[in-house]
Amino acid sequence: VGRPHIAYLGFRYKAYDGELRYATRNKSGWQLEVVDATKGAGGFPSLALDSSGKPWVSYYRVSNWDYGRDELRVAHYDGGRWQIEVVDDRDNAGRQSAIALTANGQPVVAYYSGLGGQLHLARRLDRWQTQKLEGGIGYRQHLVIDRNDIAHLVYSNIENGTTQYVSLSVKHP
Fold first, then answer.
1. C-alpha dihedral (1, 82, 35, 146), degrees to nearest 10
2. Per residue in 134-148, pLDDT tens?
């Protein structure tokens, strides 16, 4: 690691016509690449690096102006190419997200579902598994996972305007 890494939304023609982009800086300057060129991809990205310095990015993709059809995606670089997965495509999932990795490198994403205002957590074992978090009506998540695989999540509660904190185990069986 030891160098900057940035995931960002690159606009092509207009808002919501973007693509997910990734940049790193080395001695010769910035290296830029398109990760997901699907129309509407790249909104609200969150970036984490695994123990070998490979990037994982959670982000929002707006499918069209149908508010209930947008989705949360995760992209990760496997050393040869970017792998892109849809985590949740229900209820306008992923407009806000935060990604972190467990001690053994498994991704965990906290995210906001716009239609229900509900906070969710997704973990990937063989496939993505999602769960609603109790009392989680929030967005602008910040997620950290400690070495004991305890997730520490801070978010804004949109009902009462407060900042909330929750911790839970994300240890994989």
1. -50
2. 766 777 889 999 999
